[in-house]
Amino acid sequence: MALTLPPLPYPHDALQPHMSRETLEYHHDKHHKAYVDTANNLLKDGPLANKSLEEIVKASHGNNVPLFNNAAQAWNHTLFWKWMKPNGGGKIPGKLEKGLADAFGSIDEAKKQFIQAGMTQFGSGWAWFVVKNGKIEVLKTPNGENPLIHGSAAILGVDVWEHSYYIDYRNRRADYLQAFVDHLVNWEYVAELYQKAAG
Questions:
Q1: pLDDT (tens digit, 9 = 90+) per residue, 68-113?
Q2: Nearest C-alpha neighbor of 176 from the set 34, 20, 57
Q3: What percent of the chain has pLDDT over 70?
Q4: What is the pTM of this model?
């Protein structure tokens, strides 16, 4: 069962001006595709070839670095596109809003800590809102590492590899993260994942 590149859930220009058509053409059509293609080549005829992407990520961690790196990034990006939507940001659905406020004291503080995690992830990596033991936490991970291998459920992740923002923001990672939180996040999808993870 070969891994496939999922189509973007919106047109390439749908996230402008906060994320350009050019960024999505490079990021989805080239980077994400390369992770999927490389993972498929590494999986060929191997013991994990018929496993789900999630199972491949967990099984390859610590055992097969090249496969883990590409499979994890394929998993991360498949969710990343769904975590954004045209005219995103805005109001956070009730239960998720309460979960964030309970965990961080306020929505502003939750957003601030999420952005701070993205800013302080040295080099390439990701910043996350995860659910662990029923509570929302902030996590940051290097390279393609993700919450699957940390025993927590990802409900929101932001890619802080330079290819995610350099075309639009150059080295202004802070501006990219602020735009992501304020204008791109699909909070309804985050709320769905939170409901599943929190039970």
A1: 999 999 999 999 999 999 999 999 999 999 999 999 999 999 999 9
A2: 20
A3: 100
A4: 0.97
Record the tokens describing residue 186, joined without a space. 């699909």
CATH topology identical between 21-82 and 94-198:
no
CA separation, residue 142 to residues 18, 96, 131 (Å) = 24, 26, 19
Q: Which residues of 86-106 are buried (b: 16+ CB within 10 A; e: fewer)?
A: eebbeebeeebeebbbebbee
Domain boundaries, the chain: 21-82, 94-198
- Name the DSSP class of 29: I
Phi, psi of 78 (to 5 degrees): -60, -40
Architecture label for domain 94-198: 3-Layer(bab) Sandwich (3.55)
127 residue type, one letter: A
- Binning pLDDT at 50, 70 and 90, where does residue 45 land? confident
Strand partners for 84: 185
The type of residue at 15 is L
Q: What is the third-level CATH fold of 21-82? A: Helix Hairpins (1.10.287)
- What is the 8-class DSSP label of residue 30? I
* Tokens standing for residue 173: 């990672």
